[in-house]
Design goal:
CATH class of the largest domain: Alpha Beta
Radius of gyration: 27 Å
Strand content: 15-25%
Distance between the termini: 56 Å
CATH topology of the largest domain: Rossmann fold
Largest sheet: 9 strands, mixed
Oligomer: single chain
Number of helices: 17
Number of strands: 22
Structural class: alpha/beta
CATH superfamily of the largest domain: P-loop containing nucleotide triphosphate hydrolases
Strand order of the largest sheet: 16-15-17-18-14-19-20-21-22
Shape: globular
Number of domains: 3
CATH architecture of the largest domain: 3-Layer(aba) Sandwich
């Protein structure tokens, strides 16, 4: 099976490319736009417009459930609006002229908001006066008023159509709205909920300024923060509403156009690197005041919970003697975070290439079952698990690549925009290509890069795990390796000082016992993330066949070294 046999034409022999989609490009107004992403090396493809996806290697296994329905263009809504509906808009300070210019329709109690993209109606969102909502079946997810963001240096994003219309009423033609409102406060991250960002990626990345006019409630703040995290906080601004107003439409109703213009013009930037203003952290400080008992997230093992919990925006350094299980433990942490919280990860794991081997190891950990031997995982279970992992884990780098930490951060930035990363694993530091700046020695270089990673974690609200081998390994009694610390990694004290958390993974084998020791050596924010283990590590049991770490139960064994 070839790409050409599937109607896919690429002008390359390797890598990832974009081309026209044989399923939808011919029916689109901009038929020349490359909307089909093709990974030539993996033999897979995915269309960001119609959702069509497939594989050269596994075509026979594709089912209707695996292929997203091709969106159908909805009918343009009828615009014969009665006076009572015009009056409904006017009560909300939206004029007839704005209603007509936006081609809003009405039929059988339903007000219809057409979503135009490339001059075509690709979706219609409808509502009644008592806030019942619906959208066109299998419609493309995109911003409301999508065409009005194209080529704009400044884009204003609202939470709903009425807010976007309020801004249009005040002369802001560059206002758009998310299609589905805000996700529930505290809900698990969902790529599908933010799928509309894919088609807008070029325009949002090219814009110099993005003003976020979401609602002031918890869900609205959640939407605002997730959008800014993905788009990039360096270009995002947020508005502040007067007391008693939840959204921009309420500002228009209660205070008029001049107040709306003032609020948008005075939108607050997100914190500037190196500068923190009270208004930048006010909400977060109040949250901490009202919820002082909010803790980080468990890694999934009760033995570790008192010593290490995971919070966003932090850098954890993990070290240990080679072959002590650092990478295996990091994989286990990642799988647990996916299963428990639905986290999305980017992972660079040079010592786990090729990716197909690494993937099977992760499947084994997910199912707690070996991927080799007579009792190995069935194909059916493997494929169903891979579908889950595909939604939550993205591999960075290839075996052939020479990867720098800058490469990883660049790719993580893109992944964060498209999928909303919560975790990033770099494993190990020692395999990266390191490019010293002019006049930099190793110590200065490590200090600079760790500062960059820490800043990246904070700005993007991503937890970063950085695995690094110690430069020297001391032997103790019976020539057994001594437990290393971050001070044993090349670059001296920076590995300890610059990290928020520091952990050593060390296998302890005695004549009568065998366990994996998780030595938590530093926790910066102990009020929420636990306290270091000091002399006695948290103990886990490692099952090499299943590749899983389990709660430790001591089993006395007769001399392991006889």
């Amino acid at each position: 099976m070839t790409f050409e046999e599937n109607g896919i034409y690429v002008n390359a022999t390797s890598g990832e490319v974009k081309t026209q989609c044989p399923k939808c490009s011919t029916s689109r107004k901009k038929s020349s736009d490359p909307c089909l992403a093709v990974n030539i090396d993996e033999g897979v493809w995915f269309c960001h417009h119609c959702g069509w996806k497939g594989s050269l290697k596994n075509v026979k296994h594709l089912t209707k459930l695996e292929v997203a329905p091709i969106p159908t263009l909805p009918e343009v809504p009828k615009t014969n609006i009665p006076d009572k509906v015009y009056q409904w808009f006017e009560d909300r300070k939206i004029s007839r002229d704005t209603v007509d210019s936006e081609k809003i329709g009405y039929e059988n109690r339903w007000i219809h908001f057409p979503f135009y993209k490339d001059g075509q109606v690709v979706n219609v969102k409808s509502r009644t006066g008592d806030k019942k909502f619906r959208q066109s079946k299998n419609a493309e997810k995109c911003f409301y008023r999508f065409d009005n963001m194209v080529g704009m240096e400044t884009i204003i994003i609202t939470e709903g159509e009425m807010d976007a219309l309020s801004l249009v009423e005040c002369g802001f033609i560059n206002a758009v709205s998310v299609p589905d409102g805000a996700p529930a406060e505290g809900s698990k991250p969902s790529d599908k909920k933010f799928s509309y960002l894919l088609s807008a990626e070029e325009h949002l990345m090219n814009a110099q300024t993005v003003i976020l006019c979401t609602d002031s409630d918890g869900a609205g703040k959640h939407l605002r923060d997730e959008l800014s995290r993905r788009i990039g906080r360096e270009k995002c601004f947020r508005v502040v509403y007067p007391d008693g107003c939840k959204d921009i439409n309420e500002v228009l109703i209660n205070y008029g156009k001049e107040k709306v213009e003032e609020i948008v013009s005075n939108a607050h930037p997100y914190p500037i690197d190196g500068v923190v203003m009270v208004q930048d952290v006010e909400d977060d400080a109040i949250d901490l005041l009202l919820k002082p008992d909010v803790k980080g997230l468990s890694t999934g093992w009760s033995a570790i919970d008192d010593h290490y919990l995971v919070s966003p925006s932090e850098l954890t350094v993990v070290t240990g003697v080679p072959n002590m299980g650092k990478s295996e433990w990091m994989d286990a942490v990642m799988i647990n975070m996916v299963k428990l919280y639905g986290w999305n990860f980017g992972i660079f794991s040079a010592e786990n290439f090729p990716v197909k081997h690494h993937l099977l190891k992760l499947v084994g950990k997910f199912l707690s079952q070996p991927f080799w031997g007579d009792d190995r995982i069935s194909e059916k279970k493997a494929r169903s698990t891979m579908k889950i992992l595909n939604d939550h884990i993205k591999f960075i780098g290839t075996q052939e690549d020479s990867v720098t930490i800058e490469n990883i951060m660049d790719q993580a930035k893109v992944l964060n925009y498209r999928y909303g990363l919560q975790g990033l694993i770099v494993d190990p530091w020692n395999t990266l290509e390191h490019k010293f700046g002019d006049g930099e020695n190793e110590t200065l270089y490590v200090s600079r890069v760790l500062s960059q990673l820490s800043a990246f974690a904070k700005v993007n609200e991503i937890h970063i795990w950085l695995v690094a081998h110690p430069r020297k390994m001391e032997n103790g009694v019976d020539r057994k390796p001594v437990v290393p610390t971050p001070y044993d990694i090349a670059g001296s004290a920076n590995w300890y000082n610059k990290a928020d958390n520091a952990i050593t993974v060390h296998r302890h084998r005695t004549e009568t016992d065998d366990y994996a020791g998780i030595h938590v050596q530093k926790i910066r924010f102990q009020y929420k993330n636990g306290k270091p283990t000091n002399n006695e590590p948290a103990k886990l049991k490692y099952d090499i066949r299943r590749g899983v770490y389990e709660e430790y139960v001591q089993e006395f064994k007769e001399n392991l070294f006889k």
